[in-house]
Amino acid sequence: MHAFFRSLILSLFLIGSSALHLLAHEGMWLPLFLQKLNEQEMKDMGLRIGINEIYSVNNGSLKDAVFIFGGGCTSELISSQGLLLTNHHCGYSAIQSHSSMANNYLRDGFMAKTQTDELPSQGLTATRIVRIDEVTSAILNEAVDQNGKRNEAQIQANIQALKEKTAAETGYTPVIKSFYYGNQYFLFLTEVFTDIRMVAAPPSYIGKFGYDEDNWMWPRHTGDFSIFRIYGDADNKPASYSANNKPYKPYRHLEIDLSGVKEGDFTMVYGFPGQTQEYLPSESIRLLMDRTNPARIELRQSALSVINSAMRQSPETQLQYAAKQSRISNYWKKWIGENRGLQKLNAVLQRQAMEKEFLKLGGSPETLKALNALEIASADVQIAYETYVEFLQSGPELPKFMRSYLSALESISSSKDKAELEALSLKTRQQIASFYEKTDLKVDKAIFQETFPVLKKHLPASYWPESLNAQVEGRGLQVFLQGLYESSVFASAKKLQAHWDKSVAAGQAQPEPALEFVRGLYQYLLTVVQPAYTTANAERSALMQGYMAQLLKTFEGKRRLYPDANGTLRLAYGKVEGYSPRSGVRYHWQTTLRGLLEKYQKDHPDFHLPDTFIRVAGRQDFQPYYYGKDLPVAFIGSNHTTGGNSGSPVLNEYGRLVGLNFDRTWESTMSDIMFDPERCRNVACDVRYICWVVDKVMGGPHLIEEMTLIEPSSTRMR
Ligand code: ASP
Fold first, then answer.
1. d(C-alpha 487, C-alpha 468), whole Å
2. Closest approach atom of ligand 1 to CA 641
3. Which of 61, 226, 282, 646 is catalytic?
4. How much is the pLDDT for 716?
5. What pLDDT score does 462 carry?
6. Which protein residue has the closest C-alpha to ligand 1 atom 2?
7. β-pairing verdict for 256-257 and 709-710
8. Which residues of the chain have pLDDT under 70?
9. Which of 254, 200, 78 is nearest to 705 (CA)?
10. What is the share, in percent, of the chain residues with pLDDT greater than 70?
11. Active site residue 224
């Protein structure tokens, strides 16, 4: 390994130990280094257990209770029989997939009375971290020359080789991730469980109480939880679904502390934060605020205006579009909050001040200058890429589907034999059926109509291809859409199936003019936008790697630079505390059931509560979860979290579960770019509210019996 990296790695360790107490509460820390970097501060703030309890490779520790849920959430084990707690919004797609108009679990909730009633959720996974190892030297081996120049192809080859070797040696699934923009690498050995069953989901009036209006807001009263169970084979190992599988027996499950929390209490959030970008140069922040976020926000806003009104009009559409609507609206609102927060922080100016400080302390001006210049020079291609991606992901579904249909068509003539063609046909048939079942073409057409002009508005003129002018706008958008959605072979599953059958019979794709639009669009994206974006991105990554290395060195002992979130296991810690969102207003740290009932609005679907719930709540029968008269529902704290931390356990000073993380406040959402300890707060559902809902509202005392409840001691009762 090159000497530069050796000294850099050494300095990464030193930074933490010499610069404690600089930025309390900020940071998502690798559990591996807590002892070295954070233990003293955590103890000073109230931690009462050893770091070994939080992370240990050789003994069951809290990390063995914290699992990645699906592709992008966190979950935790709350019983010795594999019971897994996560957010309602994390289980949402799974709940939706089990729902029908006859059994609308999404709307009405679900409770498996026995284990045989639990519903296998195909495609869902839960992942345990077996161990974490630093592998920087193995990955950079022979990949960095004397001048520090990196050979990215060699780095990728080293990653691949190490993964293969580790998988063969251990039988687990290794994941290698880059930290600090390629200045460090860690290997995460994982165990991926694939038989995950749905156990309980609250009705939407609890799990989504307040819907979009309350999303990202405080005060909050959403019971954002759902419960699943991990199953393993006879050896307690991951296995695909089988009726013979058994509930997973974990190394560790979380105890539930019924003592609750009070303001000032120490808390930790253990989970898998997805992505932050805390070290962006000032011009990147400017681009994000001035162009990227406004384009994404407006595109999503236009899609939502169609989806929301369609969902209001029909219960079928409501069920069909529930997950899509939630996904789109979630980040639509997040980005609005993020931009406001960044403006309030004067983020560009603040970052420029930090850059000046960096230069004053001896940081090299060349890399920083080059980085900021690149952001300006590549702004158009970045905007083009992001806007097209946003249009394709949050806009109409048909273009994406047409593309996969087109590639199936193109494979007909290249199929080697009859068996290959039959397999292709079967797959295509299924895809056609599922697309038309999931998509309401009228709604999709309206989404296209609303979002397309917004796409055009935000795209730099140099990234608007002639083909879109000719094919889409030629005779007017309306006429184009009518042709596409009403007269082309895509107008119905039946028509498309016939087109497919005809193409298969002829041994080649049959002509269909509508396909020209999608062929032209994707060809343009793949041959013009993507290559230009990839080139700019590669240049940016190389510069960021050098800049980050310099930041770490320059600020050594002055600022504590934690690694950006990248979907790996992290611990954040902070305190239960309120905040002031604006002058003259102070938010209390806790909400209660009384507040939830006060929000009730009979005629407002987002704040509606059924009489049964109001009656049960009115009984004030909260014991043994709570002995007072007004059950706590949610609380906020100064733990640094982001998307992916959804479903993370909020643990107290003893490492016991007191809350379920599910959101941040709107004033906090800029924390992915710039954290403000004064205002950034994570939002958690109080575990006592979850227990009460499971037991007394959803009729699940049998689930409570599985859990390990720690009774409140009289001295600690809150
Ligand atoms: N509720 C958020 C999400 O769904 C979690 C967060 O970002 O804090 O992504």
1. 19
2. 8
3. 646
4. 56
5. 95
6. 663
7. parallel
8. 1-24, 714-718
9. 78
10. 96
11. yes
Lookup: tokens for 486? 């009403």
> Half-sphere exposure of residue 354, counting CA atoms within 13 Å on the CB side?
20
> Tell me, what's the pLDDT at 59?
87
Q: pLDDT at position 19, please?
A: 36
**pTM of the shown model:** 0.92
d(CA 533, CA 520): 19
Give the angle 325-328-334 at the CA atoms, nearest 5°: 130
The token duo for 65 is 């209770």
Annotation marks residue 646 as catalytic:
yes
CA of 175 to the centre of ligand 1 (A): 24
Residue 675 to residue 680: CA distance in whole angstroms: 7
pLDDT, tens digit (0-9, with 9 covering 90-100), for 96-121 = 999 999 999 999 999 999 999 999 99
Q: How many CB atoms lie within 10 A of CB 113?
A: 10
- How much is the CA Rg of the chain, to the nearest whole Å? 26
Which residues partner with 29 through β-bridges? 571
| Residue pair 484/514 in contact by the 8 Å Cβ criterion | yes
Per-residue CA distances from 95 to 198, 205, 280, 315, 696 (Å): 8, 15, 37, 16, 21
Give, for ligand 1, the residue of 211, 214, 333, 642 to mutate: max count of ligand atoms closer than 8 Å to Cβ: 642
Write down the catalytic residue from 89, 221, 253, 640: 89
pLDDT, tens digit, for every residue of 358-398? Answer: 999 999 999 999 999 999 999 999 999 999 999 999 999 99
Q: Which of 646, 661, 670, 682 to mutate to test the pocket of ligand 1 (most atoms within 8 A of CB)?
A: 646
- 3-class SS string, 306-345: HHHHHHHHCHHHHHHHHHHHHHHHHHHHHHHHHHHHHHHC
- Closest ligand 1 atom, CA of 669? 7
Ligand 1 pocket test: pick from 208, 217, 334 the residue with the most ligand atoms within 8 Å of its Cβ. 334
Indicate the length of the chain as a whole number: 718
Distance 331 CA to ligand 1 centre (A): 9
Domain-wise residue ranges, the chain: 282-548
Q: Of all protein residues, whose CA lies closest to atom 9 belonging to ligand 1? A: 643
